[in-house]
Amino acid sequence: MTQTHELSPNTHGHTRRIALLVLGGLALAVLLHVDAGWWTAPLAILAAGALLHLVVGGALLLVGAVLLRRRGRPEGVPRGQLIRWPRLYDGFVRVLSRGRESRLRARWLELAAPQPGEVVLDVGCGTGTLLLAAAERVGEEGTLRGIDGAPEMIERARAKARARGVTNMELAVGSADRLPYPDASCDVVLCTLVLHHLPPDLQRAALAEMRRVARPGARAVIVDLSPRTGLLQRLGSLVALVHGDAVGRVIELEAALRSLGAREITVHDSGMGALAATRARFP
Ligand SMILES: C[S@@+](CC[C@H](N)C(=O)[O-])C[C@H]1O[C@@H](n2cnc3c(N)ncnc32)[C@H](O)[C@@H]1O
Questions:
Q1: Second label for 249, Cα 20 to 30 Å away, from 50, 81, 165, 234?
Q2: Other beta carbons less than 10 A from residue 47's beta carbon
Q3: Can you give the pLDDT at residue 190?
Q4: Distances (CA, A) of 189 to 20, 101, 176, 217, 223
């Protein structure tokens, strides 16, 4: 799909989440008070869905809170939800993408079309999987830049690059809103599954930084949760289930890109549930 119409206003994830839990609770209450009949099956599914939502979301919040409390947020560490378990994360992405990760990453890269010798920047690069997928395209004369707020993710990205013999990868720990690169120094800017980890002001600041470091004519590809994906896509999406209200947290990307002077903005099917791939060109 390629859509060019205006973004609809962000939906209210909290409201949906609460509605699901209330409906699930009601369904459970009805189930407990009636004799089971075939017609109770949809109620049971609704109640189970709400319970799963509650259990998975609650458990993740609890684990995150405990680990954050135990490890603390070291001084100077960026705002945003950092991921500190790189191996677990890689496994998690494989599950979320239902084993199609390489194909999906190739599809996202295809939108940016990195060329031999170009400089590719991945903001919030995580464990470097996308940059490694770009390595062959830019060749040895190209440069792969990756930045992430979590040192653990950068460490794993370095290890993966070493293991694959990729030597032109420059990795840094830092924040998306303070990119350590000169103005107009990147041909391609990527940012996948990151924006929903940042508060709205940081999302805007990160986009402005991407604009700053982009060379004239540079391509940007941003993959993230989008209110423009259909309700069914979202309901069937593990990413949306795990993140609950995160769809409503992502800012109106097209408008934000336009305000930064971006052109040729198109939105594409990311191939992954509730995520959309937005492509733009900076003048
Ligand atoms: C869901 S992961 C996505 C990783 C990678 N882009 C991918 O496609 O697999 C989100 C990443 O954003 C990073 N992150 C969160 N806040 C950040 C910030 N302020 N600056 C840079 N990275 C940040 C997290 O540490 C995490 O690695």
A1: 50
A2: 21
A3: 98
A4: 37, 20, 12, 11, 11
Residue type at 18 in one-letter notation: I
Quote the ligand 1 centre to 119 CA distance (angstroms): 20
In the predicted model, residues of the chain with pLDDT beneath 70 are: 1-17, 30-41, 43-44, 57-58, 60-75, 229-247
Structure tokens at 19: 């509605």
- Length of the chain (residues): 283
Helix and strand totals (H; E) in the chain: 10, 8
Q: Whose C-alpha lies nearest to ligand 1, atom 25?
A: 82
Instruction: Provide the token pair at 246.
Output: 């995160």
For the CA of 223, the nearest atom of ligand 1: 8
Rounded to two decimals, what is the model's pTM? 0.77
CA dihedral 153, 80, 147, 59 (to 10 degrees): 20
Residue 2 C-alpha to ligand 1 middle, in angstroms? 26
Q: Whose CA is nearest to atom 3 of ligand 1?
A: 193
Fold of the domain built from segment(s) 79-281: Rossmann fold (3.40.50)
Instruction: Report how far residue 228's alpha carbon sits from residue 236's, in angstroms, rounded to the nearest whole number.
Output: 15
